[in-house]
Task: inverse folding
């Protein structure tokens, strides 16, 4: 009885091998519309990026990025199902079609973009790796960290960046490796190491978890570039364009001063840029395969980029992150969206 | 002979004598008692005050957790998430019904004189999965569909463990019988199956099911992650179960087989009436051991992004709004697991006593 079952599974797997190339005819947009919701891959819990709140609702900047896409397609920011994914499964889940898009603070690198059959659609958060140090060691700059003991989380690019950085500076260090970020902080708090390294977006939150946050400080150095952004499968350019332009629409909306509060008033604006974004003039949405008021829906339901940032990771949240690189190009940052025309 | 053969039993000893005999019977025992007693006093005190006396139970948010003790408020605020995961609020009654039926099926098993408790147990093994199959995912009888991606927390842990346990026992029996079969092909298949599944760690199985299998399946034919994990867990567990049961089969004396043959019983009657009842009874401790370890192994689904109770807790303890609630979270998970595993273990001891027919030597 059991044996027939295992044989059946083996047979299914074999069949799969042969028919893997048989691509489905429907485009991603069509299948999303048919399902009635967007299937979006997120992290299984990272403060500010995607984490379930006390009601079990997903919140975070990565989550809002998915919601914005749902708003653009359905005019309903709730038409999203979230699939929590670990770092190891995230790309496979996308390749196998289990999810429609991945928004799981994934760093955009050449290898991932070019060799895995994936496309990065943009950057919804510019991150970089930094250091949190114990004030007692009296260091002001990362170049003085020679010989330091450093707490890191295992299996992340953080580990590789750290070794690259120290090698290029000709310095030595003693790594102490932990499994989860929680354990890493505990190790740092218990004095097992002088320095903790992680993405800068997480350092402030980790610092606030210490019993005496003032005993630690964040060094000004950023040792790596971590552009984090949504990812889609290669081979469906329409879907690629949609996810890409949803984020651009949010950035353009902030640049034009359109917020979720004033979006209804802005419908009467004379500014042609605003009119095109909100769909009162032109057929920008139709070119993407979306409704013409997709920009209006995104801003109304999710907000512009700045609102999304402030709500999840901004200065008034426990993460307390300044805009920094993630400010608009007009305000000293590097967010620069192509014109919507 | 008028004298009784045995001396009358000693009268019950007073507590003081007991303490003297057991705790202070010599200088080294006195010393040990004092040292251990001291350690208990200085160790247990802080633990209790952290757990209860200094702990925060009531309040409205993270700011109320100011004491030096545990912040149980965090658990009570998130309890709904820890139990139901993402299951929609207004449909949680369905899961509650399942919890109720589960309790109804198995609590009577602990009460010796409960009328008809056998039927409750039988319902738990047969009816409960059927009710659950229709009730929890919905989709029939006008019930709204709840995708398995929304299941989580304690409910998911119980589903994984329950189905894993229930399905692996019959499969394990069949495999164990197959391995002892005299038909070479059947025996070969069973041996290979058992040895392959038993030789891989559960993490590998889950990882394979979650990451590799979808790549092999054709587009559109994609069964859910939970389903894949369940199949993986069941197959893996049944290989273990088969070996435990084979131990029981081998312990049955040859004479029992021969006696059954002499009575003219066929293979199935012999196995079903003579061999299996004795063999299974003998390996109850081994079977329960495997059940308990499976129950705890379900937490490994964490690595494939399913939110069992440990997963829900781990995803929320990093919430920066709460200060250092990691210990509270893990203590809570440990307590939940202890309750269920201890329950399973007590039940099995109960069962062993009841089925004991005194063949021990």
Result:
């Amino acid at each position: 009885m059991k044996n027939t079952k295992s044989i059946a599974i083996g047979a299914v797997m074999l069949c799969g091998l042969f028919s893997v190339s048989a691509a489905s005819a429907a485009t991603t947009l069509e299948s999303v519309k048919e399902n009635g919701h967007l299937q979006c891959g997120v992290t299984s819990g990272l403060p500010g990026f995607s984490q379930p709140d006390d009601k079990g609702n997903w919140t975070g900047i990565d989550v809002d990025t998915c919601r914005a896409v749902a708003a653009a397609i359905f005019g309903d920011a709730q038409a999203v199902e979230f699939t929590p994914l670990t770092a190891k499964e995230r790309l496979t889940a996308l390749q196998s079609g289990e999810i429609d898009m991945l928004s799981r603070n994934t760093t955009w690198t050449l290898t991932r973009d070019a060799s895995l059959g994936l496309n990065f659609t943009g950057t919804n958060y510019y991150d970089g790796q930094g250091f949190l140090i114990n004030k007692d060691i009296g260091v002001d700059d990362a170049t003085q960290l020679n010989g330091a003991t450093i707490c890191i989380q295992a299996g992340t690019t953080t580990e590789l960046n750290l070794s690259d950085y120290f090698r290029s500076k000709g310095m030595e260090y003693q790594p102490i490796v932990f499994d989860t970020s929680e354990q890493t902080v505990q190790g740092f708090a218990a004095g097992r190491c002088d320095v903790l390294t992680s993405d800068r977006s997480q350092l402030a939150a980790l610092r606030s978890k210490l019993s005496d946050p003032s005993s630690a400080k964040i060094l000004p150095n950023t040792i790596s570039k971590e552009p984090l952004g949504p990812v889609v499968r290669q081979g469906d350019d329409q879907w690629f364009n949609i996810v890409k332009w949803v984020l651009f629409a949010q950035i353009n909306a902030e640049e034009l001063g359109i917020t979720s509060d004033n979006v209804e008033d802005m419908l009467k604006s004379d500014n042609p840029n605003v009119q095109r974004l909100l769909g009162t003039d032109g057929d920008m949405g139709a070119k993407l395969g979306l409704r013409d008021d997709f920009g209006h829906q995104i801003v109304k339901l999710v907000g512009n980029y700045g609102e999304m940032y402030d709500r999840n990771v901004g200065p008034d949240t426990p993460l307390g992150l300044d805009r920094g690189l993630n400010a608009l190009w007009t305000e000293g940052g590097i967010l620069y969206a192509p014109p919507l025309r | 002979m008028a004298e009784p053969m045995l001396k009358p039993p000693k009268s019950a000893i007073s507590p003081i004598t007991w303490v003297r005999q057991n705790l202070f019977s010599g200088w080294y025992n006195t010393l040990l008692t004092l040292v251990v007693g001291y350690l208990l006093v200085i160790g247990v005190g802080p633990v209790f005050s952290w757990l209860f006396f200094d702990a925060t139970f009531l309040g409205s948010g993270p700011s109320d957790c100011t004491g030096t003790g545990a912040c149980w408020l965090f658990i009570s605020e998130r309890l709904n998430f820890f139990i139901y995961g993402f299951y929609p609020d207004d449909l949680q009654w369905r899961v509650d019904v399942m919890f109720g039926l589960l309790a109804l099926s198995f609590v009577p098993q602990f009460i010796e004189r409960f009328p008809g408790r056998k039927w409750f147990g039988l319902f738990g093994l047969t009816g409960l999965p059927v009710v659950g199959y229709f009730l929890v995912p919905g989709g029939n009888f006008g019930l709204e569909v709840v995708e398995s991606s929304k299941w989580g927390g304690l409910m998911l842990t119980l589903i994984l463990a329950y189905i894993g346990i229930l399905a692996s026992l019959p499969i394990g029996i069949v495999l164990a019988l197959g391995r002892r079969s005299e038909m070479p092909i059947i025996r070969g298949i069973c041996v290979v199956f058992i040895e392959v599944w038993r030789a891989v760690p559960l993490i590998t199985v889950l990882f394979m099911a979650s990451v590799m299998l979808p790549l092999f399946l054709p587009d559109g034919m994609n069964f859910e992650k939970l389903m894949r994990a369940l199949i993986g867990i069941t197959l893996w567990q049944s290989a273990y179960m088969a070996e435990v049961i084979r131990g029981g089969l081998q312990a049955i004396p040859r004479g029992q087989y021969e006696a059954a043959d002499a009575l003219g019983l066929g293979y199935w009657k012999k196995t079903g009436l003579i061999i299996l009842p004795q063999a299974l009874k003998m390996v109850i401790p081994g079977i329960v051991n495997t059940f308990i370890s499976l129950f705890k192994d379900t937490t490994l689904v964490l690595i494939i992004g399913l939110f069992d109770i440990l997963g829900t807790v781990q995803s929320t303890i990093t919430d920066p709004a709460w200060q250092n609630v990691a210990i509270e979270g893990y203590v809570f998970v440990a307590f939940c697991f202890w309750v269920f595993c201890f329950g399973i273990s007590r039940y099995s001891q109960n069962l062993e006593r009841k089925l004991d027919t005194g063949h021990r030597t």
